[in-house]
Amino acid sequence: MTAHEDPTETSSALRRALGLSRRRFLAATTGVTAATALAATGPLAAAASAATSTATGKRGNGVLVPPGKRGIILYTVRDAIGRDPGATPLASGFRRVFEELARIGYKQVEFAGYGQHPNAEGGADLENVEGARLLRRWLDDNGLQAEGNHGFIPGSWPLTTADLDRFKLHLEIANILGLGHMGTGGDPTGSAYRADWDVAAEKWNHLGALASAAGNKLYTHNHDVAYGFLLDSGPPDAAGRPTRSSGVRKLEYFLTITDPAHVYLEMDIFWAHVAQFKFRTYTAPDGSAQTAVFDPLAVVRAQTKRFPLFHAKDGKHNPAGANGYDMVPFGTGDIDYAGFFANMGAKGYHNPMYEQDNAPGDAADPGRSLRYAELSYANLAALRG
Q1: Per-residue CA distances from 157 to 166, 183, 196, 230, 365 (Å)
Q2: Strands (E), 128-177
Q3: DSSP type of residue 187
Q4: pLDDT, tens digit, 9 for 90 and up, residues 333-381
Q5: How many other C-beta atoms lie within 10 A of the C-beta of residue 238?
Q6: Is the dihedral of CA 115, 119, 121, 125 positive or negative?
Q7: What's the CA gap between 124 and 178, in Å, rounded?
Q8: Helices and strands, counts by H and E, the chain
Q9: Taking Cα atoms as reference points, which of 362, 357, 277, 282 lies closest to residue 319?
Q10: Structure pTM?
Q11: How many CB atoms lie within 10 A of CB 114?
Q12: In sequence order, what are the beta bridge partners of 221?
């Protein structure tokens, strides 16, 4: 085991490669290592070796994102998944899109829900046990691994019975798909106030413990606002809420009050750089204006294993725009991904997912999202450090 290797990651990767449920895996490996217990015969030995190599992150030639870690969130190609297969020769629906992504070279996918066009094989709604089994078969057929999902996070707190039941269903779906991580596309709260982040942390600690008990890692995802400054001090407003900031950023505060054993983050690196551009000043408790420039890489380096996934979304610097960056295909922008991935620590641990919100084309260019996926894969694979 290397200095950076996480035995939980290794066993999780091995379990997914062998298609075992968590219960069967634990039963099979009681009192002996997974590799010893399951690698007695040829096919199982090959699967064990491949899973362990992926999990331990063995590298060569300075490649920053090895083949087994090159992923895409399916939101990027949502137009292809959602289009009618009877109306176009282009890849449509989950199964055909999986085939195309595998042809390009991707090995990991992150779901953004489980819906597709109703005329696609399997029907519109695969957010159920049978749908998950179908998706798992298509993933396996194409050598793909499901690594995460922007799915259901209960809106209630304390949890309603209906929300708890649906969350448990998503944990079951995650186990069928072999997800190592399960998350959401939104922030823990949209509030700027510390009290609301305290409540969000209480809820996420509870949900994270449920996910951990099911053999999964629960993660939240950021947009730019979540790395803005927390309102946690100063004179109160008319409603008694704080009006000034200590200079602590919201998601950084969330990290300090959530359990690192149960709550993880997926940094969207594009939106983190937008936060760097937008949120540079705050009003201190004494009323003075203070400047603090956000450093996304420093946040990750400080506790790199709290960030098992990234959205590898690129941006072309545009200081005249509201966000400071315009989204572009991966590798064609100005964000220093080579420097980021080379210096974030825990080599081989992270799972970068290419994302581009504006990848889908219009009626004149319906194949654009998959074309961008191919270009971005090539650039992701070419990163060297």
Answers
A1: 14, 17, 12, 22, 44
A2: 145-149
A3: -
A4: 999 999 999 999 999 999 999 999 999 999 999 999 999 999 999 999 9
A5: 5
A6: positive
A7: 21
A8: 14, 14
A9: 277
A10: 0.84
A11: 23
A12: 266
Do residues 228 and 247 make contact, with C-beta atoms less than 8 angstroms apart?
no
Give residue 89's identity as a one-letter amino acid code.
P
**Beta 233-236 vs 242-244: how paired, if at all?**
antiparallel
CB 316 within 8 A of CB 303: no
Tokens matching residue 261: 């054993």
The pair phi, psi for residue 75, each rounded to 5°, is -60, -30
Q: Is the pLDDT of residue 18 over 50?
A: no
Question: DSSP assignment, residue 159?
Answer: P
Q: pLDDT band for 204, please (50, 70, 90 cuts).
A: very high
Helix (H, G, I), strand (E, B) or coil at 59: coil
Contacts of 93-98 spanning 24+ positions with Cβ under 8 A:
93/117, 93/119, 93/120, 93/121, 93/122, 94/120, 94/121, 94/122, 94/126, 94/135, 94/138, 95/120, 95/121, 95/122, 95/138, 96/120, 97/370, 98/138, 98/139, 98/141, 98/142, 98/144
Contact between residue 149 and residue 174 where contact means Cβ atoms under 8 Å apart: yes
Instruction: Output the pLDDT for position 61.
Output: 59
**Phi and psi of 383, rounded to 5°?**
-65, 130
